[in-house]
Design goal:
Mean pLDDT: 87
Number of strands: 6
Structural class: alpha+beta
Oligomer: single chain
Helix content: 25-40%
Radius of gyration: 18 Å
Strand content: 25-35%
Length: about 150
């Protein structure tokens, strides 16, 4: 077993394998999709794809988002729309680290005297698309689909 605390989803690993094959092909090296999956398994510290697939598949709930997906929701009480630029399944079942790129910056400060605009955030969400952390009014920091 590997020492990593985070693993990509099976879907993301398969996409990575496709990109790996394409990159190798531009260098004149042809590998099969199954060989690319084996290479990714080794990079994550597993002896083969079947072992990595078993670890992810047996502990995984489906991620509420996928890489490249368009999403909308609320971040710190403010509406947003944007793209999912990263998704990682965490070892804690039902938890996913996501990175979002907002179309328009979101001001994360509630004071009138200054602002702090964010266009990209990373946070840990559950299978419902919400953070466990809450604002002072009891709302999740991030809620997808809200």
């Amino acid at each position: 077993m590997n020492g990593s605390i985070r693993l990509p989803s099976l879907e993301d690993l398969k996409k990575q394998a496709g990109r790996l094959r394409a990159d190798l092909a531009t260098d004149g090296r042809t590998v099969s999709h199954s060989r690319a999956l084996e290479m990714l398994a080794h990079q994550h510290g597993y002896k083969d794809w079947n072992t990595l697939h078993g670890v992810i598949g047996n502990s995984a709930q489906p991620s509420p988002v996928t890489l490249g997906q368009r999403v909308r929701g609320r971040y710190l009480g403010q509406a947003f729309e944007g793209d999912v630029t990263g998704v990682q399944m965490l070892t804690m079942p039902g938890r996913f680290r996501v990175t979002l790129q907002f179309d328009e910056p979101v001001d994360v400060v509630t004071f009138d005297s200054f602002s702090n605009l964010r266009r990209r955030i990373s946070c840990v969400i559950n299978a419902d698309g919400a953070t466990m952390e809450k604002t002072s009014n009891g709302q999740p920091h991030l809620q997808l689909g809200a």
